[in-house]
Amino acid sequence: MKRNLLRIFRSAAIAAIAVVTFSACAAVQANSGTAQAQEGQGRPSSLFGIVIGSRSLDDDTAWDQIESPFVVGFEGGTVGDPVGFEVGLSFAGDSTTVSGVDVTNTFLELSLGARGVFGDGPLFPYVGGGVALITAEVEGESGGSSVSDDDASVGLYGHGGVLYRLGVNFFVGIDARLVTGTSLEIFGIDSDADYTQIAAVLGWGS
Questions:
Q1: Contact between 197 and 71 (Cβ < 8 Å)
Q2: Which of 5, 16, 81, 175 has the fewest CB atoms within 10 Å, i.e. is most exposed?
């Protein structure tokens, strides 16, 4: 059952990336000829970004010594007036060694929700929230042999931050994010994938 959920999730993530990429290309083409875009003024119609940062897992007992995964992700969508949609995909992981066993956790997250972007630039504060689907896997390896277990859960996410426009279509910023309401069972231990996260954003818009 868990493996089937993981396969479904990965297929959904690929489909989401394809939709976002198509939307981004369409938005760039539609706005490439406008004087406003050439001057780098006003509100963009879409925003996309690469997210790089670190998260802190809420259950630091179950995730002892691997509770601070490094995260890399992608998020973006329409700006809207006042609210647009957003989709995100992220990978996170942490590792440690316990009694000679290398222990690694990895998280794959797909999120879908709404986002409000404010202001006319060069600063663009924003807030967003929606539903997150997370798969988590823990692997232990020692002496060339390994064991692993995984699980998946749905939760709610919220985030906010600010972007600063650089030039015409590029942005830098910071993003604070949290996920709550998840539930996992890995190696018979009840836990969750809830977290708080701080990340830098390297973005582009049109």
A1: yes
A2: 81
